[in-house]
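User: I'm putting together notes for a lab meeting next week and I want to include a structural view of one of the chains we've been expressing. I don't have a solved structure, so I'd like a prediction I can at least talk through. The sequence is below, exactly as it appears in our construct file.
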Amino acid sequence: MFETAFGFIPEQGADIILSDQNERLVSQEFRIQSHDEATLRWLAGVNFFRTHFTLDRNSSSSFSPYSSGLWDVAIDSEVWSVFGDLGKDLSERWSLSGGLRLAQDEQDFSVRYTGKGFPGSVEAFQQDERRTDSYTTGHLTLGANWNAATYSYFRVARGYASGGYDKGAFNAAVGEETVAFAPSKSWSYELGLKMQLLQGRATINGSVFFNDVDNGQLLAANTETQPTTFEFINQDYDTYGLELETRWLPSRALELSLALGYTETELRDVTEAAAVGVKSGNRVPGAPELTAAFNAHVQLAPRWRASLQFQHVGDRAADAQNTDLLAAYDMINARLTWGQERFKMYAFVNNWQDERPEYFSSTYSDTAHALSIGPGRVLGLGLRGQL
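Assistant: Thanks for the context. Below is the predicted structure for the 387-residue chain, given as structure tokens.
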């Protein structure tokens, strides 16, 4: 790959990275809510979430200043939020529900870098930043019970993804700050239908959706630097499509389910600040157009149960530039279980047909792409017990 992209092959043993990453998470939520049969259904609560991430990296390189030096990175994130939800039946058919969530994020980011004398790198660099962000999200849903077995709804939701920093902090090697990527905001619209058939032995759930995302957080390759570097970019995009789920119980011993999804994605209003090759109309990276899943669960005997799963994931754009496509793949998983509720033994095979799915791709030039390939067939045994 290096010879294709950069015209040389690094000397064996000259490029070594020793990396130690640790993350601790703490979360706690308290909530209080009304009874389900209350005339006015309500819920209120408070949530706390905190992460402490550290990265120590010792990197030696024969070709890039971005991969040479000692890094000490720490990121502390803390989120407080309060939330509430209300729901009420407007009539025998119509119902209305809505909710709000108010949150505040605080993030501390620090980098300590020491160089190893590689050309283009600096002797030392440090950066300390703090971000504080307050925001409100929420939803509003109008539902209709057409009869005892048919329900439809229209939902509008406001979403928000906090901004942050690239934990790699590679720019420190050349004396440049790590610039925070911006928060992302979205409006989501969904029209759905839920039906029960065959006296409740079958269900069909379907929906169509449209998501309008502002400042979506994407990863792009910057081929203007040599060697290529990778950076977070904020760009607007839309996603829209449909989803269908069905479930059928032909007998007490057999359960079948099928899920289908089709999604179109499109970058829009791409700014001049975007990486080279990112343009309006490109697909959003990592988002397959077609997905499908089929599941079958069979009760073979009082203590024996078998399951079979088929999954399909369509092709995906590898990056925001759409320089490459990750191939579609199919996967079959199976499991055989013996036991009761408190104690179970099982054997499983994942990826039965030994598929090697393409999970991720990095672009280094127009003709050089590095692929991250998933594992092949996996066999296993397991035990699960409950006291």
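A couple of points you could mention at the meeting. The mean pLDDT is 92. The domain at 13-385 is CATH 2.40.170.20 (Maltoporin; Chain A).

User: Perfect, that's what I needed.
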